[in-house]
Amino acid sequence: MPHTDSLPDAGLLARLPAALAAARQAPAYATHLAGLDPATVTDRAALARLPVLRKGEMPARQRESLPFGGFVPGPAGAFPRLFTSPGPIFEPQRAGEDPWGGAPALAAAGFQAGEVVLNTFGYHLTPGGFIFDSAARALGCAVIPAGPGNTEQQLDLIEAYRPAGYVGTPDFLKVLLDAGAKAGRDVSSLVKALVSGAAFPASLQAEFAQRGIAARQAYATADVGFIAYETPDEPGLLVSDGLILEIVRPGTGDPVPEGEVGEIVVTVPDLDRPLIRYALGDLTAALPGGRRIRGWMGRADQAAKVKGMFVRPEQVAEIARRHPELGRLCLVVTRADEADVMTLKAESATTDAALAEALAETLRAVTKLRGTVALVAPGSLPNDGKVIADERPVG
């Protein structure tokens, strides 16, 4: 299956009204999207005006209304499989041959029909194993449902079935290769890999290449499926065709300019399991052209407890709204004289004392805590999506 950098927005946006109407059949979505006319949401600007739904809220929402918190239109029995992920978050599997949309990612990593794939993602309760299993089988591969662990038995499977490809975490691939080398086992059939679920530094990718394995990475989640994946000789990760991806300022639903680091928000216009502006809590930035992202760049969930009270990214965003003349903001939390100290760093074209004083008053009004203000030069704060930097020593 070839991959493409072409913008699929037109087709996806055309499906939005029907997906929104389907979502509103679920009671919690009906409340969340109250007053909405689905027919009016046909472009990105209209989509950006809808409220976000945060993944971090789902465990509490689901506890209030089991199993899906009222955000799934149909009953649990209408889905082929039902899972739980850490949180816990209860999640149904969509219908279809490749319900999580992973076959293009495997194809981009060089997997081909007729090959054998060793799948070391777990099949128990969580969907990881099934996500990659269905993708490989949709591509025409045979799958060894190995799951994680049991290194000795995995080496037996490799020698018996001679898989060309590996899917799993990069860490476990290294464990297998090291164990095989130490025991004198033949793992030479493995020549390609698609890894996910853990950091994949360039140094480890280079090590795999030295050992004869072309390893690429994918960014996927249990609830969404494949969000983006690496393609040969191209920068960053290509956004999957089946979803609309936005990058927003942490704590808001406001899209950031291209290249600015922000939180990933996805919309999946599926009629049975729609996800509308679902904020994942992960940070990234768009590369030029909008169809590629830099990959996972940290977490947007930056709440910090200061003097017994939580300070959240939404509050920093509110300060920014009240002072549109400012650039980036970052609230730095430190310790001094055995007490928490807050300093709001704000990019400003002026160092006017009156502005600093007004900003300090806004900080106190929004957070209910006192803090100091440091006005810094425009462009001097890092473009890392961090709006709260907790620099207090640990322990």
TrEMBL record:
Domain of life of the native organism: Bacteria
One Pfam family hit: AMP-binding
Domain AMP-dependent synthetase/ligase: from-to ranges: 138-267
Protein known as: AMP-dependent synthetase
Protein source organism: Methylobacterium aquaticum
